Amino acid sequence: PSKPVIIAIHPHGVASDYRVAMDGMLYEALPGRQVFTLAASVLFSLPLVRELVLWTRCIDASKKIAARALKRGLSLAVIPGGEAEQMRTQTGVEEVYLAKRFGFVKLAMQHGAALVPTYAYGTVDLYDITPEMHAANTRGFLWTLSKKFGVAMPRYSGSFGFLPKRCQNDLVFGKPIELKCATPGEPTDAEVQAAHAEYAVALKKLFDENRTALGYGDRELFVA
Questions:
Q1: Are 89 and 124 in contact (CB under 8 A)?
Q2: For 188-209, how does the pLDDT look when each residue is reduced to its tens digit (9 = 90+)?
C-alpha cells in the first residue's frame, strides 16, 4: 500500500457504468489504498454530473492534477480509451482504443507507479447500438464534438430509455506491472513505447485467460 499504482480499466463502454458501481468494492479489493478515478475535465463543469463524479472520488484527468495525486502517494484509476473509445463502442464487440494511448504509461514511469491492467467484461453488452447509431457516433457532428471539446454524447438505447440492460459485469484485475527506465522518473520515448507494448500484451493475456470462464469464450479482443 505504500507504493501508488495506476489501475487502467478497459473498455470505456457507452457510459462506464462500472465506475460508479465499483466505487465501494474497489476499496474492499485494495485495502489500505486511497484510489481516485481520473475523469474528463468537462464533467466538472456540468450541473449534477459534477456532484456525481465528486461523490464517487473522481479528480480532474489533467496531467498536472494526476501527477500531484501520485506525488502524494495516492493511487489512480484511469480509463485510457477515453472519449474516443466511448464513441466507438459497438454492442458485443470487445475493442479497446489503446494503440496511441501512451500518456498513462508515461505517467506511471515518471512517478514509479505500477500499472494494473483491468478488464470489465459485459461493458459492451449494457446498451444497444445500431449500425446507424455507430456511424453517427464515429463521424460528423458527434465525433467532432468529442474530439475538439471532450464532450462525448453517443447515440444508444437501453432497456428503458437510457437505462442499461440487465447484464452481468465482471471486473478482473491483472498482475501489477513494474515499469523500469534507465533514469528513474525520466523515461525516454523508446522506453515508454516498450513499456506500452508490454502492457498491451499483458492486457490481451488477461482477457484471453478469463473470457471463457466468464462466458465470453467466443469473443476476441481488438486493439485499435
A1: yes
A2: 999 999 999 999 999 999 999 9
Secondary structure of 121-182 in HEC code, one letter for each residue: ECHHHCCECCHHHHHHHCCHHHHHHHHHHCCCCCCCECCECCECCCCCCEEEECCCECCCCC
The predicted-structure confidence for 110-125, as pLDDT tens digits, reads as follows 999 999 999 999 999 9
Cα–Cα distances in Å, from 15 out to 19, 114, 162, 167, 192?
A: 9, 26, 10, 14, 29
| Contact criterion met (CB below 8 Å) for 74 and 65 | no
Amino acid residing at 15: A
Amino acid identity of residue 59, one-letter, is I
Please name the amino acid found at residue 133: M
pTM beyond 0.90, yes or no: yes
Grid coordinates belonging to 141: 457532428
Residue 186 has phi, psi (to 5 degrees) of -130, 70
Residue 107: is it exposed, middle or buried by C-beta count within 10 angstroms (0-12/13-18/19+)? Answer: buried
Alpha-carbon distance of 46 to 107, in angstroms, equals 27
